[in-house]
């Protein structure tokens, strides 16, 4: 039996206040596919990503994530399968780099239960992969834009997502 597509849009449409942003969009991506979406500002790239993560509900069509209808999945199920690096990310709190990266494990944590050694190892590995291990104890409020972008990528990798969505990941 063939493995389901990782991500599929079937006739996807979305509009803001009557202005069509996405209309009749069809695509299918397999695991391992690497796709870049380019277009001018305001073309709907971020809107598409928000639909693909259920932050916005499409006006028509459907989104299938790993063989399941996205609208039937809980936020926790989506977070366990989809990692997102947003276009903009900021915090006013001086969390350390390691604390931010470990937050990527939240979809796997149970209420009132501590992190497991596996969760801590996932965060350490993600920091190593992105070359930020040396920043682990630094507050994120003290980082450059590029360093912060790598922290958010590490946080997303610590999630162990099956699908990774990056919104302007090289902006810094």
Quick take:
By secondary structure, the protein is of the alpha+beta class. The protein has helices at 45-52, 75-81, 97-102, 117-129, 145-158; strands at residues 7-16, 19-29, 60-65, 68-69, 82-85, 163-166.
General description of the model:
The relative contact order is 0.16. The longest helix is centred in the last third of the chain and has 14 residues, at 145-158. The protein is 28% helix and 22% strand. The protein has helices at 45-52, 75-81, 97-102, 117-129, 145-158, and strands at 7-16, 19-29, 60-65, 68-69, 82-85, 163-166. Strands 2-1-3-4 form a 4-stranded antiparallel beta sheet, covered by helices on one side. The chain is an alpha+beta fold and 172 residues long. It has 5 helices and 6 strands. Helix 4 (117-129) crosses helix 5 (145-158).
Layout of helices and strands:
Elements: E1 7-16, E2 19-29, H1 45-52, E3 60-65, E4 68-69, H2 75-81, E5 82-85, H3 97-102, H4 117-129, H5 145-158, E6 163-166
Parallel strand pairs: 5-6
Antiparallel strand pairs: 1-2, 1-3, 3-4
Helix pairs in contact: 4-5
């Amino acid at each position: 039996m063939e493995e389901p597509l990782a991500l599929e849009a079937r006739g996807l449409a979305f509009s803001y206040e009557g202005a069509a942003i996405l209309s009749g969009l069809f695509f299918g991506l397999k695991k391992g596919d690497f796709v870049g979406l380019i277009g001018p500002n305001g073309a709907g790239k971020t809107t598409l990503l928000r639909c693909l993560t259920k932050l916005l509900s499409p006006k028509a069509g459907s989104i299938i994530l790993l063989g399941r209808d996205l609208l039937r999945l809980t936020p926790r199920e989506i977070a366990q399968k989809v990692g997102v690096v947003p276009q903009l990310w900021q915090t006013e709190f001086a969390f350390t780099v390691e604390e931010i990266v470990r937050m990527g494990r939240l979809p796997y944590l149970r209420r009132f239960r501590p992190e497991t050694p596996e969760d801590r190892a996932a965060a350490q590995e993600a920091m190593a992969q992105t070359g930020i291990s040396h920043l682990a104890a630094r507050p994120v409020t003290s980082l450059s834009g590029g360093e912060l972008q790598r922290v958010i990528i590490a946080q997303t990798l610590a999630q162990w997502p099956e699908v990774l969505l990056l919104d302007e990941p090289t902006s810094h």
